[in-house]
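Researcher: Please predict.
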Amino acid sequence: MNAIDLHIHSVYSDSSLSLADILTSVKEKNLHTISITDHDTFACYKHLQEYSLPCAIVKGIEISAFDETLQKPVHILGYGFGEDTPHVDALCATTLQHRLKASLWQIEQLKKHGYKITKEEVENLAIDSTAIYKQHIMDVMMKHGYSDGIYSDVYRKLFKNNGICECTIPYVSVADAIRAIHADHGIAVLAHPYLSKVVSQIPNYLSMGIDGIETWHSSHSKSEVEDLHQIAKRYKLIETGGSDTHGRYGNEPDIGECSPYMKESDVTLCSRI
């Protein structure tokens, strides 16, 4: 168990965890610093004011970006923002619109192919979220008995491998994501480099202004952590760690279960904020 978790998702994007769920877990586990890093939105931070906070909270986000060289999605974490974030908000607004459009199309595809689900059912599940995600659609599919899990064979058949619901959402460039984070006085961190298979691109992202890397992601092995730790030292990068938990909407570990190889003293982000 780690006392710091800088990568948590809530119901305001694609997680099943409410703010009450997150804060209760944090208190029970005695975490002292967390960041809620929802996809392309700061919405949760407007609602945190309603709660008594059991720990320090670093304002964060996870921006959906695209690497033109590798032709694949990349996630850029942003940390340490103040109250106003006009540049990141404007950048992410377009992504959220594209995501909603894609999800509504996916719902219609399912209905067209005989699945008895409705847009209203999905919208009700995603009522707190700033968009509709595949997790919301699959949750409704589970309620109708079409699937026994979020990431089941049914999910892979429908949403992957040229399935009827597979589609590409246009994401912002990595450079634009980093630029927007810096414009709003935030710190830009490359999320889960090994999971995203973008370790080779770190020198390129460095030229774009990346400030750090998520060394201690819950998916990283001991050898991957050691490699990233050395890369961070070589390029003088900030290091972070997080569980990347999505509650029952993901396969990641629970809050606070970031990495058995993470030492609090090595998480250099906290000393920079």
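Model: The longest helix spans residues 86-112.
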